[in-house]
Amino acid sequence: GGIKNYGTFAGVFTPSILTILGVILYMRMGAIVGNSTSIWMTIAIIIFAHVVSVTTGLSVSSIATDKKIKAGGIYYMLSRSLGLPFGGAIGVTIFVATALSIALYLIGFAESALMVFDVDTMDINNLRIGGSIALVMVVTLALISTSLAMKAQYIILGFIVLSLISIGFGTADGLEIGTDTLKDTPSFALLFGIFFPAVTGFTAGVAMSGDLKNPVKSIPWGTMLAIAVGLIVYVGLALFLSGAIPAEILKSNNNAIVEFAWGGSFFVVAGIWGATLSSALGGILGAPRILQAMSMDAI
Q1: Which whole-number Å values give the CA distances from 281 to 133, 150, 293, in the listed order?
Q2: What is the pLDDT of residue 144?
Q3: What is d(CA 145, CA 139) in angstroms, rounded to the nearest whole number?
Q4: What average pLDDT does the chain have?
């Protein structure tokens, strides 16, 4: 392993919160609030999803305080507590899931970028091209330096905070009903499925486990704090949106939050781009570490 040089905030909390507060928060939260039968349904979706992430976070924390943690994040913990056959089976799945999540974040980035650059058509090829360009950028950053990538986190976190503040001071004047609709009739299960990836990001912080100064302290604190802050932000934003923007607009205009924000869309767009690209970067830094840990175990 490299130099163990990251503390709780830089090594666990920040990558986790950046991956939690990502593409779903900005691009789909409005649609979830707008399509819910009432605000209570949205809150129920958020809490239900957090039941899963909190229990997982607590399990991760209990293993982290119980065993010596090396590189490989969740895979390392599982293989040491459940044995290599289980750990290996889950490790392959986590590796593939982390790799595929990179695509989720990059497509979210591309969707936002196409709106900003006023590309008329949201067709799938434009999303593919935009996402691929972003992928090359992010991979280049990861290749140049992990520490540069870790430093960039703070700037991105700053933009996300500013974007949330600018949403708080936004106005609904001039928002229009759009053409974005769900293919199926909105149900609890469908909206839950859209929202759930929003809470899975906390594993990103654990993925850097081999690079932490003190994993026994950093993993529980960083993980649980990130999940808690994420919960507060999601519930707060859901309550705020349901009061501030008519459901018809939320339901039909995926860009409503961006247009709503105070000071034009600058901070929110910076927040979306930062959140999506940093989430993708987290996957690019984390996925190979999982594969590397598995290969060191000769699975």
Answers
A1: 14, 10, 19
A2: 86
A3: 10
A4: 89
pLDDT (mean) for 256-272? 88
Question: Token pair for residue 182?
Answer: 């769900």
User: In whole angstroms, how far apart are CA 103 and each of 93, 127, 158, 277?
Assistant: 16, 11, 24, 11
Is the Cα dihedral 100, 105, 108, 109 positive or negative? negative
Residue given tokens 């609030």 in the structure block = 33
Torsional sign, CA 62, 7, 16, 73: negative
Cα 192 to chain centroid distance, Å, stands at: 15
* Extended strands (E) in 53-199: none
CA separation for the pair 238, 256 (Å, rounded): 13
Hey, what amino acid is at 271? G
Tell me the sheet residues that pair with 212: 6
The residue whose two tokens read 């067709």 is: 123
Entry field: residues in the chain: 299
pLDDT at 34 (0 to 100): 96
pLDDT digits (tens, 9 = 90+) for 194-237: 999 899 888 777 877 888 899 899 999 999 999 999 999 999 99
Distance, in Å, from the CA atom of 228 to the CA atom of 54, rounded to the nearest integer, reads: 9
- pLDDT for the residue 1: 45
> Can you give the three-state secondary structure of 259-274, one letter per residue?
HHCCCCCHHHHHHHHH
Q: What are φ and ψ of residue 22, in 5° steps?
A: -130, -135
pLDDT at 3: 63
